Sequence to fold (268 residues):
Amino acid sequence: MLLPFLLYGAAHFLTATKGEVVQDFKNCLEFFLDKMPPGESLTPPREAKICQFYRNAYRFATMYDREKRIPIYSAYKCKPGKGHRYQGWMIEPQLVDPTLGKAMEDERETNVAAAGIKKSQATFDDYAQALSIEKGHLNPVSHQPDEDSRAATSTLTNIVPQYSKLNEDGWANHESLLKKEAQACRDMYVLVGAVPGDEYISDLRVNKPSHIWSAACCVLDNQHRKSWAALAKNSENEVKEYSLETLQKILAELYGKKKVDLFNGSCN
Fold:
C-alpha cells in the first residue's frame, strides 16, 4: 500500500503547486516600485500571492490571508481614468482549486461550487448582516484607468470589512487626494493594506482589520521620487498622514515585526 500512497502524494503535490496564487508575483511585478514587492514582514502564515487577472490582462497584485479571508495589501499603479463602477462582486476560482484558472469571475455567474468558494475566501453573504461595516476596497475603483481595470477592483480578495463612516468619508477623501497628486507623477506606485484585528464578522469567518494604511511613491523622473503615507483606525472616521518612515515604524509595531520596508528603501 505504500507505493500507491507515495504516488498519490506526489500527484497531490504537483496539483497543489500549479496556478498563480501559490508561487510569487513574477507575472505582476509591474505594479511594485522597481518591480520589488515588500519583504516577508507582510506575508501571513497562510498566504496567497494573487496576480489579479481580468479580461486577459493583469490589473494589480494582492497579498491575501487565506485564514483571515482578507487581503493584507494590494499593490497597483494609480492612473485615474473614467468608467462605471462594476455592479457585482468577483471571486477567485484559483483559491478553490489552482487548476480552475487564473481569471476572477463574477460570484453570481461562476460555475464553481459555492461550498468551495466559501471555504477558500470571503463571499458577498459574509458582509450582508454586518452592522456599520461596508466592503472597503484596498485598490479603489477611482484610481484605475479604464472600465476593465475598474471592474477588477471589485474582487472580494481586494475587500476588507471597513467602518462605514471611514469608508464613505475620511478614507474616500484620502483616495481623492492621492488621485490629484498622481497627476504630477510620471508613475505613482501605491500599496494599501490592512492590519488584522481581534474582531470578526460572519460567525468569525472574516477578520475585521484594526487599521487601514496607505503608502504611495511618486516617480517624478529618473532622479526624483517622493512619498505619502497614511493610517486610520478601522473604528474611527479619521485618517492621519505620516512620513513613510514613521508609517513603517508604526506598522512594524502593529504587525509585531522587527521592520517593515514597503518600498525597499527606494522612495523618500
